[in-house]
Every structure is written in structure tokens, then in C-alpha cells.
Amino acid sequence: MIDLGVGPLVSVWLADLDGTVRQAQNVNHQHYAASLVKLPIALAAYRMHDRGELDLDAVVPVHPDFASAVEGERFEMHEAYDQDPETWAADTVPLRELVARSLARSGNLAANLVLEQVGPAEVAAVLADAGCSPMTEVGRAIEDAPAEEAGLTNLMTAHDAGRLLAGIAERTLASAAACQEVEQVLTRQRHRDGIPLGLPEGTAVANKTGWVDGVRHDIALVRPDDRPGFVLAILTSGLDDDEAEWRISELARFLWQSAW
User: Fold this and answer.
1) List of domains in the chain
2) What is the phi-psi region of residue 215: left when phi exceeds 0, alpha when psi lies from -120 to 50, beta otherwise?
């Protein structure tokens, strides 16, 4: 292991797809998950589709109000907090497209519409089957204010984020076709200023970002031409947003140059 010189608020997990761990620092530190929760939500939809319990090609009515995780409460989302105006402008969207928008655009409304279809128990099953620890949890939807006030939250560790990506790479978290499609969607990620920026141009990267004020994460499944494929998860809390984004890309660059 390399001493990266990072503080306790930066977590790094780097492992080859054969399971070889190349870097592990603060990997069990709980971070607010932000949009990383969209990955297990998406996988839950594909798993239900695999079992014939959900039609990914069915159209879903678009609405901004949802039932809260707190029984009897509801909440309404805000378009200003979203990265995906097209979903807000639509009356209906196919479920498969909602999944793609939640991942590649980090669409909040799209993610909540998918979560409404799959339910929290199915998301919890994804985490369990990936081998995630109890430190990682999806306790509420995005912008669920009543649930947040009740203490329900979404948390993730760098190790567990890596386990989710490894399950996609190994084609074990859903059918091979489903895992391949999720990975392909992640290669179309619009937010590429973290890990992808630190890797050589042209490197195949399937990544998912997450951020709110004071929290910035990037997790990536990387398939280079000149070395084994690997997963890299970098989660940060308590840093200035610009510093966090710079640190993520620089850590990716440093690890690429020194971890093999």
C-alpha cells in the first residue's frame, strides 16, 4: 500500500477485477452517499426485470411528489436541484430510459421514479448480494425531507462502492446482459471531471459520481488496454468542492502511475 497522505475524510479503494487489493485507506468510513445510491437503485430495476417482475420498457408517469419513507408523509422534489430537465418536461418516460438518466445524467427525479417502482427492500437486497457491509444503507429517496428529519439517511463506504462495481464487472449482481447494459450506460457518464480526468485519454471508464455541498465522490470500473481491469472508489467529505474534485482526479492520476 502507498501512503497517499490523505486525511480521514478521504476514502480510497482500488482493486483489480481478480480481487487483488492495491489500495485501501479509510475504506470503512461512512460518507453521505449522495447520488451513489442511484447505482443500487438501477441494479434493483434490472434484477426485477431479469425475474420477470418489472418491465423496463414500460412507460412511467412523471410526477414530482412521492410517498416518504416516513409512513403517512409525502414530499415534493425541486427541479432546480436536478441535472436532468428532460425528465421534468415529460409526461411519461420508459423505465429503462429513467434508469439510464439516473446514472449517466445523475437525474434525481428519474432515480426516485425508479425507486418508486422497485421499493427499498429490493435495493437492500442488491447491497446484501454485493457483499456490502451494514455501514452502507439506502434509507430514503432523494429530497425526502420528512425522512431526513426523522434521521433516515443514505450512507456508503468506499469498500462497499467497490463491491457494487465489482459485482457489475463480474456479471454476478444481475444477469450478464443486465450488468453489461448498466456498465455501458455508465460509460456514457456526463460527469467526467473526477476519476476519468486523472486517467490517460481514451481509457475505458464506466463511472458514477455523487455530490452535495461538502461531499464529492466518484467510483469507476476501468478497463485499460495495458493492465488488468480494476475498480476505483474515491469518496470525500468535508472538503471544498473544487478541492475535492481536484483531489479525486489527482489521486486517480497518482494511483495509475504508482499502484502497479
Assistant:
1) 10-258 (3.40.710.10)
2) beta
Q: What residue type is 71 in one-letter code? A: E
The per-residue pLDDT for range 150-187, each reduced to its tens digit, is: 999 999 999 999 999 999 999 999 999 999 999 999 99
Dig out the grid coordinates for 61 from the structure. 408517469
Q: How far apart are CA 107 and CA 115, in angstroms?
A: 12
- Evaluate the CA torsion angle 44, 45, 50, 52 in order and state its sign: positive
Q: Is 232 helix (H, G, I), strand (E, B) or coil?
A: strand
Residue 43 · residue 192 · CB < 8 Å: no
By DSSP bridging, strand 137-138 and strand 21-25 are unpaired
Positions of the chain with pLDDT under 70: 1-8
User: The cell 421534468 sits on which residue?
Assistant: 88
Contact 26, 161 (CB under 8 A): no
CA distance 13 to 219: 9
Cβ count near 223 (within 10 Å): 16
Confidence (pTM): 0.96
